[in-house]
Amino acid sequence: MSKTPADTATVSVLPSADAPPRHRWWILAVIGLAQLMVVLDATIVNIALPSAQKDLGFSDGDRQWVVTAYALAFGSLLLLGGRLSDLFGRKITFLVGLVGFAGASALGGAASSFELLIVARAAQGLFGALLAPAALSLLATTFTDAKERARAFAVYSAIAGAGGAIGLLLGGVLTEYLDWRWTLYVNLVFAAAAFIGGVLLLQSSGRDKSVKVDVPGAVLVTGGLFCLVYGFSNAEHHDWSSPQTWGFLIAGGVLLAAFTWWQTRSAHPLLPLRILLDRNRGASFISILIIGAGMFGVFLFLTYYLQQSLGYTPIKTGLAFMPMIVALMLATTLATSWLIPRFGPKPVVPLGMGAAAAGMIWLTALDLNSSYATHVMPPLIVAGLGLGLVMAPAMSLATAGVAVEDAGVASAAVNTMQQVGGSLGTALLNTLFTSAVTDYLAGKNPKDPAVLAQAGLEGYSAAYWWSAAFFAAGLVISVLLYRRGAPATDPDAAPVVHM
Fold first, then answer.
1. 436 in helix, strand or coil?
2. What is the pLDDT at residue 491?
3. In terms of domains, do 80 and 194 share one?
4. Local structure of 27: helix, strand or coil
5. Domains in the chain: how many in total?
6. Does one domain contain both 118 and 57?
């Protein structure tokens, strides 16, 4: 699932000289509530997507933008959001992020067209990219005692980890008993409570005039990522040979290459490249990108399969994912507490990639008569175990050993990779899905319900096979790049949190 800190390099890791706020545990509740809102929005709309598509009448080719618009805006602007939090002050950035997120959610809930919904989802991602780093920065500067800080970060991490599962269940309940629009309207409740608490409890921080914003870097990385996602999406409408497909893909590659070059020249880079150069960290960033691509795809296509092919209700769909979430959490705990300290990442991450690939291949056997207990749940559990074995070590090692001043930007980069992976994977997999459906329908009666149902299965199967290919590539890359042996640990390392 998803999982958000940001570039708080100068504020999130250094203790304040002032006495800790008297109401700091209430402040933790406010920050945790805001974090929960941001995290669950990565999954809450997934369960409601079939209902929203039916209501607004958008195509299968376009539906991925409801997921991608949020993830892409959030992921590509997260590094910039951390800088702005330092520049304008943490409290004001936090409150502006809350108000903006609430406004975007209200706009999306009231959307009368697909285009308006996409604008709202992108705006949610934009304000989430302001809100998340400010929240993490406030957390770190509020808790200055080492033991209290460890407890606060543990609570924050637990909220971040549970947010995706809560989003799946809450999305099902709201869609079934109210309306899909309430999966967006519910954010107003979260935002209002967090805003009132923030105004009353948070201490104002002055602007850091030494902070410089890398505007060219932000423009290059955001433009490059958008071109890649848009190019993959265009393949469904214009074919891979169309200039509107490969032209955007090439433009995206050029812009990202220019971003990489600029980061070596900028005096205040958004992403210092030294963070990526360690072998374990580089392998971890690639693993996180692949996990994001595969996992977002599972949620999207399995949601449609359960609701449209098997006739599940939204609540039943949300509950159907819970065994996968439980397996993921168990594997994460096992990897963190026992496997990585003993064996290191080199055997564990490839094992996880292989298990995730096996789960995806298993899902390709689903048909219109598949039962949940026999055919759906087992591959979900296998995939969940695999994802957990990859996620914990990759997220930990992606930030291990970074300098204190780089801890914030390294944490933000981890979450950026996950969101970008989800954006690119969803766009590509949805295009492959629609292509498989179109190929199957060629020469057949598209008005025959049985033909349409089988076409959907062909599309889902194609998406699962390609997800398996992502994980297989991740297996090879992780075997080649990760170092042997257990990683060294630094007890004095700066705290890092992931969504």
1. helix
2. 47
3. yes
4. helix
5. 3
6. yes
- The verdict on 436 and 302 lying in the same domain is yes
**Separation between Cα atoms, residue 316 and residue 339, nearest integer Å:** 34
Pairwise CA distance, residues 50 & 211, whole Å:
44
Range of the domain at 279: 271-499
Q: Which two tokens stand for residue 46?
A: 């997934």
Using the CB atoms, write b or e for 9-32: b if 16+ within 10 Å.
bbbbbbeeeeebbeebeebbebbb
Q: Please indicate, yes or no, if residue 292 is contained in any of the structural domains.
A: yes
The average pLDDT across 104-130 equals 93
Separation in Å, CA 390 to CA 15, 42, 49, 91, 182: 32, 20, 28, 35, 33
Do 251 and 358 lie in one domain? The reply is no
Tokens representing residue 124 in the block: 């949610």
**pLDDT band at residue 482 under the 50/70/90 scheme:** confident
List helix spans (H) across 364-483: 377-397, 407-441, 449-481
Q: What secondary structure letter does DSSP report for 369? A: T
| Per-position DSSP letters for 118-160, written without gaps between them | HHHHHHHHHHHHHHHHHHHHHHHHH--SHHHHHHHHHHHHHHH
Total-model pTM: 0.80
Q: What does pLDDT average to over the chain?
A: 83
